[in-house]
Amino acid sequence: MKRDWGWVYEELADLQSADAEELRRQAEDEAAPFAPRPAPEPAPADEVVDLGLIPYEDALDQVRRTSPPPRHPRARRRGR
Predict the structure, then answer these.
(1) How far is Cα 48 from Cα 33, in angstroms, rounded to an integer?
(2) Is residue 60 part of a domain?
(3) Which of 8, 48, 50, 79 is surrounded by the most beta carbons within 10 Å?
């Protein structure tokens, strides 16, 4: 006796698609409405933004006051 399982597969496919549609509807209902983020306001042109940097002239003076790093000794050539 041969059994026809085609109807079982059709029923399972129908149930899966019905579940998928229901889940999609629930997700759409629960999702928050789209609201774009407000753009941040740019800083006024006359306002000075402190970046934690020192003025160029002060940095140049500090560089001039410090001694240069020590030079590495030259490598000796062997076998001349």
Answers:
(1) 38
(2) no
(3) 8
Q: Which two tokens stand for residue 55?
A: 């003025």
Give me 79's structure tokens: 């076998």
22 within a domain of the structure (yes/no): yes
Q: Which amino acid is at 51?
A: L
> Domain limits at 15?
1-31
Average pLDDT across the chain, whole number: 79
* CA 22 – CA 16 distance, rounded (Å): 10
Q: In this structure, what are the phi and psi dihedrals at residue 51, rounded to the nearest 5 degrees? A: -100, 5
17-39, pLDDT tens digit by residue?
Answer: 777 888 888 878 777 777 788 88
- State the pTM of this model: 0.27
Distance CA(8)–CA(14), nearest Å, equals: 10
